[in-house]
Amino acid sequence: MVDDTYSARAATVSGSSTAEDQRVRLLFCLIVAIFKAATLIYAAGGLLQDPDNWWHVRVGLDMLSSGTFPTVDTYSYTFAGSPWIAKEWLGQILFALAYSLNGWNGVTLLTIAMSTLTVFLLAWYLSASLKPTVAFGLTFILSLLIGPILTARPLVFTLPIIIIWTAELFRAARDERAPPLWLLPLICLWANLHATFTFGFIIAAFAGLDFLARTRLTKPGLLGKWIAFGVLCPLVTLLNPYGIKAILATFSVAYGNEAVAYIDEWQPFNASDSYLMEAFLLVALLGLLVSRVQIGWPKALFLLFNLHLLLTHQRFAYLFVLLVPLILAAEIGEQFSWVSAHKWAKGHLDRLEQFLASHFHSISAAIGILIVSTAAIFSSVSGVEPSPKTSAKGALAFAQQHNLSGNVFNSYNFGGTLIFHGIKTFIDGRTDQLFLNGFMKKTMLAGNSGGKPILEEQMKTYAIGWALLATGDSRIPFFNELTGWRRAYSDENAVIFIRE
């Protein structure tokens, strides 16, 4: 009877301690997420710097108004009628709804919400293996590194998904159990949000290899479930408006897309332009070498795969930043007790942690009120607008006032705003499916030394009526020399040329 009473008291104490630990962990995750949200709100205009922000919203608005999914290009005159699908249709509709509710403020607020959720989930999964203070600091650093991709593009909706997908699959492999079937609807959602969903297949394959390396064919039944899961992954992603076309479209960049050589985000990693990322890579490499952390060969291959993506195309740096710490956290927490979440949970909370645990409900309520009030104030007061470098606001106002007509020859970065304002483009950001067969290459060559004849050929071929160019466009000197053309408008961001 005495032993039973002692066991019951011990269980009560243990349960109370576990509850306090979870509260502390949750609050640390919330706090780092709120920090990220605060920085994004402070610099909200930076979320609308990309020229693609414009056309993603317009495509979403058009789908909402027409009730149909596009299958051919209707936004350019150079490739009008060519096959084109809105493979990121759901993300575009979400942005369109946000825009309909509150203009660009709504789009920005939605982007901030998804970015904040991403940071929270990253901290949550890291803190499962690393003690909260370590997870907090690491998440803060990683959130700074992914800053460049936090823009109002459909990719931002996939960041929480890829964190959950990776963490849950590798945890299932580590625990030597079958992959959770509830992840299948998640990758189906991913497939309707953004073309990167095919990375989900690769992540699942690496997690499956990790499971195989741990079990060494001793659990054939579970191995069969992993194989079945791998087969189901591509099948469920067919549940989208375009079926197999959505999967095939994801390979258009990887296999010979001519636009890759000319778009900044698809360029190889350049350390001279990314000091912070270079420092992170060097520190991470130093830490792995000095600490001699032991990881299995599947995770080592996964690390190298993500490093290869980063070095090949700098836009994939976020995969390395988010996923490599996620998969290594378990081994680091297990092999180094001073950062272990398990050891931390067995010890006593420090003063800060005790304060957080004892005031959990009041702090949570304060955070909730802060979030709601900040969102309300931001929505009603802030007047966020896309970057003037992509909007050509003054130039388009001039074009409207002077009734400029005919096909427009535009700089790449003005393609999005032209689509948004209902003007058919010469070229725009949809180069993953359009502006191929030598068109992109020829357009870029027209801006090189000796490119004037190419420019004149394009002007004739496409019956150009006027030109809208960014002030730094290398073709401006050629336009200054063209017979029958004159500069009609210019400001710090845009120049308009019209025929005499």
UniProtKB/TrEMBL annotation:
Keywords: Membrane, Transmembrane, Transmembrane helix. The chain crosses the membrane at residues 26-48, 104-126, 133-150, 181-209, 221-239, 275-295, 316-339, 359-381. It comes from the Bacteria. This is Glycosyltransferase RgtA/B/C/D-like domain-containing protein. It comes from Phyllobacterium trifolii.
